[in-house]
TrEMBL record:
Homology family: Belongs to the GPN-loop GTPase family.
Protein name: GPN-loop GTPase 3
Function noted in UniProt: Small GTPase required for proper nuclear import of RNA polymerase II and III (RNAPII and RNAPIII). May act at an RNAP assembly step prior to nuclear import.
Transmembrane segments: none
UniProt key word Nucleotide-binding: yes
Keyword annotations of the record: GTP-binding, Hydrolase, Nucleotide-binding
Top-rank lineage group of the source organism: Eukaryota
One example GO MF annotation: GTPase activity
InterPro entries recorded: Gpn, Gpn3, P-loop_NTPase
Database matches in Pfam families: ATP_bind_1 (PF03029)
Length: 262
């Protein structure tokens, strides 16, 4: 998951490549009805069920409304997904999600998709990508972290934050960068305060406190050409999936239905 253009499809391709190299059986599932091309062709593809282009053309929806419609359509046709998933019981699926963050933050759509997958006994781990450039601007970083936190809270699945496109961060000093991998909340607040009017200092402090309470300020760096960073992310995903396996089986909560026409 993650905002548009943050590198989700590239992440998926990198991870699939890595999994294939270490001999894991892995497949790509595409949940973006507007996706155009992939490095690996998806084994399961929402576009086989519905495409954004068709919805926009036939129902005269705009791109965002159309996307919501497509995912609602998927939710109303989960037997299609169940059938597609039938043959992948013991394999890893990497799910490439759309970049509209409202799907994770306030629409319950992704939550309901996760609930359905859990009912089918899949264990799920969320990986949320933010671009490394976010750390060059503190307020941008806060906004990104809060969108990641919002996704974590609404999906209620193990959640890993990843900083993508690390190769583009040439100019940032190493020590400054490390601050974001295991950040000190006080330093983050000071840095934000330094560039903002004193009117916002209490707000900055409260935000940093909140994101620190949820342990959301920690990020794993992803450099797609660096095997170590890929292996580290993979091992966090493995730990999260193992954690899920060790939990008592739980009946996922039913989320409320929303009438989008209204
Ligand atoms: N330099 C650099 N570019 C990257 C990296 N990852 C992705 N990109 C580029 O960023 C652009 C967007 O990458 P995608 O992987 O398509 O991003 P996405 O999040 O799937 O995009 P949407 O599905 O449109 O939201 C592409 O031009 C990629 O080549 C990276 O690690 N480094």
């Amino acid at each position: 998951m993650g905002p548009a253009g943050t590198g989700k499809s590239t992440y998926c391709a990198t991870m699939i490549n890595h999994c294939q190299n270490i001999g894991r059986s892995v497949h790509l599932m595409n949940l973006d009805p507007a996706a155009e091309k992939f490095e690996y062709s998806p084994s399961i593809d929402i576009r086989d069920l519905i495409t954004l282009e068709d919805v926009m053309e036939e129902l005269q929806f705009g791109p965002n409304g159309g996307l919501i419609y497509c995912l609602e359509f998927l939710l109303n046709n989960m037997d299609w997904l169940e059938e597609e998933l039938g043959e992948y019981e013991d394999d890893y699926l990497i799910i490439d999600c759309p970049g509209q963050i409202e799907l994770y933050t306030h629409f319950p759509i992704m939550r309901r998709i996760c609930d359905c997958l859990q009912r089918m006994h899949f264990r799920i781990c969320g990986v949320y990508l933010l671009e490394s450039q976010f750390i060059e601007d503190n307020s941008k970083f806060f906004a990104g972290v809060m969108s990641a936190m919002s996704a974590m809270i609404s999906l209620e699945i193990p959640h890993i934050n990843v900083l993508s496109k690390m190769d583009l961060l040439g100019k940032v000093k190493k020590q400054e960068l490390e601050r974001y991998f295991d950040p000190d909340p006080l330093l983050l607040t000071d840095k934000a305060n330094a560039s903002m009017s004193s009117r916002f200092h209490d707000l900055n402090k409260a935000i940093v406190q909140l994101i620190d309470d949820y342990n959301m300020v920690s990020f794993l760096p992803l450099n797609i050409t660096d095997e170590d960073s890929i292996t580290t992310i993979m091992s966090h995903v493995d730990n999260a999936l193992q954690f899920e396996e060790d939990q008592e089986p739980k009946e996922p909560k039913d989320t409320f239905d929303v009438d989008y026409d209204e």
